[in-house]
Write a structure and sequence with these properties.
Distance between the termini: 15 Å
Shape: globular
Strand order of the largest sheet: 1-2
Number of helices: 3
Structural class: mainly alpha
Strand content: under 5%
Radius of gyration: 14 Å
Order of helices and strands: HEHHE
Amino acid sequence: MAGFLPGPGMAVYYATKAYALSFTEALHSELRPRGIRVSMLCPGPVPTEFAERAGLSKRSMGPSALIQSADYVAEAGYRGLIDGRRTIVPGRSTS
């Protein structure tokens, strides 16, 4: 979700995510006529071993209603790509 928001204290990280989102959206349009699918997966917080090693507890990841399992995010990403969606935000309807 960092590509959609400013990130005080983590400006380079958030800016990189915004660039990746913009680049993906452009590639999606440019390559679609060739039958090439390009999608951007934008999950919210996902409790993984990476998050655990970074010292992030579920509580520090934000409201529990926003936390999604890695399995759920992977499934949503796969389905979104197969459906030809440009941007995939698990748990929401997107284009």
